[in-house]
Every structure is written in structure tokens, then in C-alpha cells.
Amino acid sequence: MSVTFTVNGTEYVVHATEINVSTSLNTFIRNHAHLTGTKFMCLEGGCGACVVNLTGLHPVSGEPFSYAVNSCLFPVLACHGMDITTVEGIGGKQQGYHATQKLLAHFNGTQCGYCSPGMVMNMYSLLESKKGKVTMEEIENSFGGNICRCTGYRPILDAFKALAVDADPKIKEKCQDIEDLTKICPKTGSACAGKCSAAGKINPNKGLHLSFDEQKEWHKVYNVSDIFAIFESIGDNPYTLIGGNTAHGVYRRSDAIKVFIDINAVQELRASSVGSSLTVGAGTSLTELMDLLTFTAKQNNSFSYFEHLVRHIDLIANVPVRNTGTIAGNLSIKNQHPEFPSDLYLILEATDAKLTILESQGKTSTVRPSEYVTLDMTKKLLLNVILPPLDPSIYVYRSFKIMPRAQNAHAYVNGAFLIKLEGSNIVSSNICFGGIDPRFTHAIKTEEFLKGKNLLTNETIQGALKILATELSPDWVLPDAAPEYRKNLALSLFYKFALNIAPELKATVKNEFKSGGTVLDRPLSSGTQSFDTVKENWPLTKNIPKIEGLLQTSGEAKYANDLPKFPNELYAAFVLGTESQTKITNIDASEALKLPGVVAFYSAKDIPGANNFMYFKGFMGPHDEEVFCSEKLIYHGQPVGLVVAETFNLANRASKLVKVQYEKTSSKRYPTVKDVLRAKATDRLNDMPYSTLGEEFEAAPNGAIKVKGCFEIGGQYHYTMETQTAVCIPIEDGMDVYSATQWIDFTQIAISKLLNVPENSLNLYVRRLGGGYGSKGTRATLIACAAALAAHKTQRPVRLVMTLEANMEAIGKRYGVISNYEVDVEKDGKITKLYNEYVHDFGSCLNESMGHCAEFFRNCYDNKAWKTVAKGAITDSASNTWCRAPGTTEGIAMVETIMEHVAHATGLDPLDVRMANMPKDLKMYELMPQFRADVEYDLRKKEIEQFNRENRWRKRGIAVTPMRYPLGYFGTIHALVSIYHTDGTVVITHGGIEMGQGMNTKVAQVAAYVLGIPMEKISIKPSANM
């Protein structure tokens, strides 16, 4: 038996002997179909870099469907009978570009470009699913699952909104010079991909059964009875039911699972019916559920509460996840992991929905969601969900979700409320919360208290809040927000519910309280960007699309991991230490090496040269940093070795089987700078050489007002869309190294010393990076050294691509900082004396100084009476590293926080405080009053103050923050210009690294201007060490 599907119109027939049972669609597209436009990144369905289009036939209606999916999660074996379209399938250099690709490039919606193919395919899929007719609001709401770390989203959204039916004319104007924007398909009415669907060729009555290595098997079934037949046949073998497989992005699936059952085509699980209630098959996707609820709400007033359900479901995950994630899948996560903050579980429980459970022999039972999550569901099936009618004259339902972002985030706390009324009094209620405790759903005492009472009286609300406060006892398991915060959120959501429903129940609410009952409605985003230019200097100063733009939006731009697989290539994965401040006594890789396909394990003892990847001591810092820990593990996540295997999945699986034995030492653990300060661990604190002392500080007078405070910024993961990557290939005279590094010669030096080989035997190449932001300045060298060692030892090509989890564990982040300040101020806001002591969290060593923080703390202000004391804390985390404006972010944030605190303490306008502390001869002092007038700051502030007086619970604000940004000069870097004498074309290589900043475009502009030739005659080649 085999699985059959198409990719960009090419048919693939896949047998069990060719792939692993858990192979994702992403892996197949990249490693088997050899299409690298679809990117490899988070493997969680959270970033969108891997989005492709999936087309098939609905098992119940037989109608075609077409939507975006996260290929990193969707199993390739679940694609039986479907058509997959990747970014290469909709356009490219040879066949011409698709409208989405052209527009994204034209609007300069790319920087590093790693996210761009996923952006394009999400937009393409939206057009396909909506028959080409989408609104700007739909577009903005559809990109919560597509992360761009570089650009900010304005140009991306502007590009795609040009395709909306209600597109802003100003956006349309920008598109006038793009020819043949869209070819409309006569069948779908949407933008044409150039290929028609092959879906429907598969016999829907014929199930699949494929047998794989390690006694694993894959089934595709078309009816419920087949599922139970499989249950009967597999004995005690662990199994999983496959819908969208999106749960794998939240909780990684166990390697112990033997049986995979694809239930996507089971009609009983996908059907729905409307009678006195709405019955929805549990295999229905969340997107399909939203459409069904929206349609049903319009047909019957007793289902009007469905509109509230739809709004809440729209806050679950993101569009590609909702396209494949199912009702049963979401609820099953809650069943297996009670701590999972399932929004779907909460809103179904609050609406008195019922779940039908099916067992063998056709036995059924009906339970509440709160009962379901405690059931043993072994060899049982969640068949459907039954949603009751709720007459709006009797029932009132609302739900809310508070989360870190507007989209694509789990809730801090969510709340769902249903009350049944008799007149104005409550007969019964469901007061439900998530995010409090895994065992807590109903506020039972509060529900009891509300019986027979009119909710909308001050006495009832106060009484309910008092009782609710006694019921809410949040746990605290990191990374949850603090218990007190979550408790107060839950209390406020109950109060918001009361305010929200008051108008509907004809209750009187004070005008200043009303806005507290509404949910923030995010309007369409908008923004403008303008350029000053001098035409005589064109193309040097011309605003042009980036020269790689179309290559990035079409997936033709190549990154390190897009190199085709080399003969005999191996994959590598780090083994990471887990017990910081311990001594490693033994490393046993025998279990890993027993796995077929695992080739080798390397540790510190296998390094022929220097076990260090950190050089340039005078410039970069005082400490060596080991490639592999040799003895004492100094941080959790420190690499202790490297597994090398035939596949990526195998290498990462085997790395978890390596056993490391630790011996405790007397050293105490301090994970963060806060822990160091709390414990007063002075042995971990170091005076840094960039403290400052203003010449007037010692003699400075005290001020009329003294302001003291503490300010904290946490660390920050760089979140490069391309994780740390290196590919090393042994060659006749050394090694080719393709490293995702921002610093080529640093990487070259470290590999040379590690392998004890001449530097000239190493050829380093960097075409481009999928984001850098400092994380690939020195840290990329660690990855390149490890891959180079494995390639050197095996004499085979080695590819090391870090998983998102490993990347976050092993690689340092932005420095956290804690600042304690004391400021003397006059009543006019003028600072007479300022003292600021700040401590940076350096991680495991003091490399990569934060000296520029001192310069940027000054910002735009007179610092003659200021003193700053800089300290560095050594903590038990990976050595932190520079990250996007390193030091400057902290410096400016610290001083601007002080300015805001001074304004608060003096009662003055924060902008006036800033002006009072600027030197009169500073250009900013001259510019700020004009800017203040241009943006109508004072008028807008008055309007805001009026709004805030009139609204007790919702507030507005306005702020202006100046920034002085000195530019450093680090000298020139080489460039080689080659002019070909036959046709006059030019090739340039340079020593910079293109990572999204448009360096190659600027180089081409400069060369075209200096040489007096068109830019089309210039080609920029990859950076290299030669």
C-alpha cells in the first residue's frame, strides 16, 4: 500500500520503506521533493515560515477545500488524496511571479526574507479559500501565525491589502507599475496558481495500512467501525488518532507510539446537524466550526450566542492551526494535560454543551466537558459536541480572554459566563475560569451565591466578588504569570461581564464605567513612510525595492539549510547538560549508538585542538568558552557533546538517550541576576570598567524632591527565524563551511584552532542570514565548530540545524538588567543630582561587554551631575550576547524611566521634564518644540485627559521619547569589484553579511552611481573569507 498526493501538480507515491512514519509534510517537501522555499523553523505551528496550501475534498459534502497549513506539523501520510501547493508552485523566475510575490517585494515587505514564503502562501491560501474576495480586515486577522522578526508588519500588510476588495486607494496607487498582477482562475475565481486540483482521484472507500520499522504502523480510515477494529487488533500498543496533529506543537508526541490512525476522512466525525440543538462532529476543524456557528447563529435566534463563541475561537492559536486543528484534538490535549489552558473547553463548559463518547459495540454516553477531561479515553472516541439552544430572553452568555498578544497566544486567564434569568433574577449560572489551577473551572460558591439575586446591583456584584476572591487560589508553575495578577484578572473579568451585559438587561450604569465592559477593538492598522531624495544622485538615493525581494518572496533565495543534501551527509544534534554547577563524571552514549543510523558521538576529549570558540580577548572579553563542557557544567543547556546520525529526527532523538552523570559541587545556583541580588552573592558581582562620574556630581546640591526607584528589563530571546545553522563539507584541501554567521573570520579562526588546521584550509561562505540581531555574532561559531569537528572526524558532510528548543536552551540572549536609581530634583523638573547603579545579567561569563550602555544612558540630557555604577552578574545561564541595539536599549530605557518617574513625582508634563534636562546647545532641544507643535501634542493631551476623566476603567496615554543615537565606526571591510570586459557586467563581493538590512542593494546602488551604469548590470555574490 502507498500514500498518493501531488506537490505543485507532480504526483508522489510514497511507500513505507521510503520515509519514517512520523515524517512531516515539511520534511517531505524539503528533503524528498527538494523544494526549499518552504522553510524549516519552529516545528510548533507558531511562526508560519513553513505554511503551504492544502487542497482536497470534504469527506461529507464532497466540496473542494483549500486552506493554509503548517507543514511542520501536518503529517505527510495524512496528505493521501490531496494536493499541496508550495511557494514554488505559484510563481518564480521561470514561469513568472504571482501577485502576492510581486506585491510583497514591491512594497519592501522583506528584510532577511526567511518568513516571506510563508507570508506569501498564507495570503495565497486566504485568496483561494475565499474565492479571491477578501477584505482588509480579513487579511489583518489572518496573519497572527506568521511571525516576521525583522520588519514590523506595515509593509507586509500593505502589500497584501492591495489585493482586498475594499483596498485603500492609496495602497492601490503603489501597485500601478506592477504588470499582470493577477490571472483569475475561471474555476475558483481566485488568483491562479497555474495548476488544477488532482484531488478526488483516491477511492474514498479503501482504507490504508502501512507498516514501518520499529513495528510502527499507519492507518487511514473512512468510518468509525474501522477505528474500533484497529483498537481491537493492536492490543496494548500505544496509539494516537491523527487529525491536524497540531497538539504536537504544544506537547511533543511520545516516541513510544506505535500506531497512528488518520481519522480526517471519517464522515461521522466531520458531519453536523441542526435540530433543537446543534450537533457537530468532533473531527470538525476549528475554522469549519467557526463557519458553521456563524451560519447557524443567523438562522435561529436561540443560537445567537454562537456569535460570542466565534469571536472567542478566533483567539485560539492562528489560522493555519485552526484550519487543521479539531474540536476533539483540542479537548484531548486538555484530557491528557489538565494544565493546558484550553479556550474551547472553557467556552463549551460554560454553555452547557455535551460531549458524546463512543465505545466499542456502539455503546455511547453523554458527558459535560468538565467530566470528559477526567475520563480515561483509552480506546474510546469523542464522537460529537452538542450545543444547546439558549433563548436570549432567558440566557445571557459572554466570554473573555486575556493574553500576552492580540493573537496566537495562550491565555493568562480566560473567563466564560452564562446566566439563566427569571425576570431580573438569576435562576442558575456558570461562572468559569481557566488559567487559575488545572483542577479549577467553576466558581461553585459564587454560582450558589448568585441564585435568586439580581446580578446588576452593587450589593450583588460586591458580594459575588468577595466570595469569588476566596475561591480563586491560582497555582504558580512557570512560565505562568504571578498568581496575584491572575487572580485579579479573573475578578476583573467577572466585573467586566456584569458591565458588558448591563445595557442588554436594561440596567443603569454610570457613564464613566461603561467602557470597562467593552473589549478592545483593534482597528485596521495604517501607517505612512516617506523619503527625501535628490534625483541627481540616483540610483544612489533612489527609493527602490530590495534587489533580492522577488527571490525572497518566491522562495528562490537560499539560506544555509537550503543547500541540497550532499552524498553521505550526516545530521548532528547537541547533547545538552541539565545540572548546572556540577562536575561531569561520566558520559554514556551507548544507548544512542545502538539506534540504527546513529554514526557517532563526540565530546570534549575528541577535540584535536583548542576546546574554545571565543577569541579576540581584548575586544570580546576575558573568558574562554568551551565548545563542549570538559568538566564543570556552568549553565543549564551547555553542550556536553554531539550526536551524528543519518537523519535530523534520528540525531535529535538519539541526543536525548545520551546519559550524563553529575557530581554535585559546593557552588550555589543563581539562574538570574535577580537571584544574585536577592542572595547578596557578591562573589558573582563584578565591577565593570564603564561606570561614569560627572564632573559636578560630588558638589551637586540636593533637590527639593528626592525620587528613588528600581527598574528591570528581562532577557530576550533573539528569535531569528533561521535557527543556528552550519553545514560543513570535507574537501580535497580542507573544508567548506556554510555557516549562518555574522562574523566570518571569527568563525574561521575558531574552527582552525579547534581542528588544529591552517586557516587557509577553511573556505567559509555566507549567502545571507535568516535574521541575526547579534545572536550569530559569536554564538554561531559554537555551532560551526561542532559541525566542523563532526565533519573532520567522519570525513563526511555534516549539517547541524538547531531545534528551537535547543537554540533557546544553549544560546545566550539579550542581557537582562536591574537598575536602582536615586535622583534629586527641583520643582521645575530640573535634575540636580542623579545616581544609578545597574547590574547586567552576563550569563555564564563576562564576554561581550555592555560598555555602550553608559554612553546611551546619557541620551539627550546634561549628565554633568550624574554618577553611574555598572556591574556585571555571573549567572547559571548561557553566556548572554549582543541583541539588537545591545546596551542602547537598556541605557535609554533606564534614563527615560527616570524621566517619567520625575514627571510623576513633580506633577509636570513628562515632555517638559525632558526639555528641562536637555543642554541648550543640543540639536534635539531645538527640534523638540517644533515636533511638539507638528504632532499637536498639547491638544491631543488635553483630549486624552478629558477622556480619562470620563472613563474610570479605560485609559489613554501619549508619550514622546527622544533618542540620541551615536554611530560607531569600526573601520572598512574589503570589497572586490570585477568588471567583465565583454559585456561590461559587474560582480561584487564584500566583507559584510546580508541579513535583511539591504546591504547588497545599497552596495549595488553605490557601484551603479560610481561606475555610471544601470543597477541591472551589477550582481552581488555571497560573502566569503577569500
TrEMBL record:
InterPro entries membership: 2Fe-2S-bd, 2Fe-2S-bd_dom_sf, 2Fe-2S_ferredoxin-like_sf, 2Fe-2S_ferredoxin-type, 2Fe2S_fd_BS, Ald_Oxase/Xan_DH_a/b, Ald_Oxase/Xan_DH_a/b_sf, Ald_Oxase/xanthine_DH-like
Coiled coil: none
Keywords tagged on the record: 2Fe-2S, FAD, Flavoprotein, Iron, Iron-sulfur, Metal-binding, Molybdenum, NAD, Oxidoreductase, Peroxisome
UniProt binding sites for [2Fe-2S] cluster 2: C112, C115, C148, C150
Presence of the UniProt keyword Nucleotide-binding in the record: no
UniProt keyword NAD, yes or no: yes
Cofactor note (record): Binds 2 [2Fe-2S] clusters. Binds 1 Mo-molybdopterin (Mo-MPT) cofactor per subunit.
Residues that, per the record, bind [2Fe-2S] cluster 1: C42, C47, C50, C72
Limits of the FAD-binding PCMH-type domain: 211-392
Chain residues that bind Mo-molybdopterin: Q742, R884
Assembly and binders: Homodimer.
Protein name: FAD-binding PCMH-type domain-containing protein
